Amino acid sequence: MTATSLVKAVTLALARAMQENDKVLVLGEDVGVDGGVFRATDGLLQRFGAERVFDTPLAEAAIAGIAVGLAAQGFRPVAEIQFTGFIYPAIDQLANHASRMRTRTRGRLTCPMVVRSPAGGGIRAPEHHSESPEAMLAHIPGLRVVIPSSPRRAYRLLLAAIRNPDPVVFLEPTRLYRAAVEDMEDDGLDLPLDRCFVDREGTDVTLVAWGAMVREALEAASALAPDGIDAEVIDVATIKPLDAETILTSVRKTGRCVIIHEAPLTGGFGGEIAARIADGALLSLLAPIARVTGYDTVIPLPRLEQHYFPTAVRIAAAVRKAMTFS
After folding, report:
1. Of 28, 42, 26, which Cα lies nearest the Cα of 76?
2. pTM, 2 dp
3. 129, 139, 261, 307: which is the annotated catalytic residue?
4. Catalytic annotation on 129?
5. Whether 110 contacts 82, CB under 8 Å
6. CATH of the domain spanning 2-184, picked from 3.40.50.2000, 3.90.226.10, 3.30.565.10, 3.40.50.970
7. pLDDT in tens, 166-183
8. Dihedral angle at the C-alpha atoms of 239, 253, 292, 289, nearest 10 degrees?
């Protein structure tokens, strides 16, 4: 076991996948010589060579398009979009080609590619560097959207994404890159995609979160415990396809639910989860479903950033309000 940061876990997963399969390639802006803007690809060029790790121009549509072509020809490209705020030009390729490859060819071709991108805020970056577009990406049929919440989970989910035969967008919480450290082994094991994880069991309320918000939810659960409020915490992990049954099972048990994400409220993926709960667990609810989210505005960078994102304090307040219903 070695103490490993989330960004290092990403590096280890990429190296493991490339070692196991010579069809795995890494491409993107500054991923080679510089080792990535956050150093997530550090050392891969020296280890695997310029034919498997290569820098691209600043052209996100081209990066995604090259990855689609490589995937269709039997490679397993892992393309980095430097920040999710720059992912919009790549959506044309993701929505019109990568996600449709299996159905377009009646299963003759698949598109085993991964698009990695740092996501979310918390590092006081400039505009376009703190986006959380997971709901928009999840709306694209045929595309998986995965967001890890810890180093161990990042390592195992990234390996699963690279080994998957269909396209995956893998959003890495920027604020956790070096803030989250866990003891873990580089053992090559993966975790199943399309599954939520129960990180803390409880009986009174269900907290549903993903990415960096899982830590806030766990902190809120710990703060509520001395008041006798027993919170269950679920890490969604794979936004699309959603493992709704794990969430529904928890809500049927607790009767209350607070959904947390740092993307804006309107159109956020929390609304989809709330709708699934209304469909599948409405009669179990003891209180209205609550959402603690970012606000419907551009993130006020950099000085007001900490006022934008959900915190353990805001989450605990939402839980206490839910507990007033019986």
Report:
1. 26
2. 0.97
3. 129
4. yes
5. no
6. 3.40.50.970
7. 999 999 999 999 999 999
8. 100
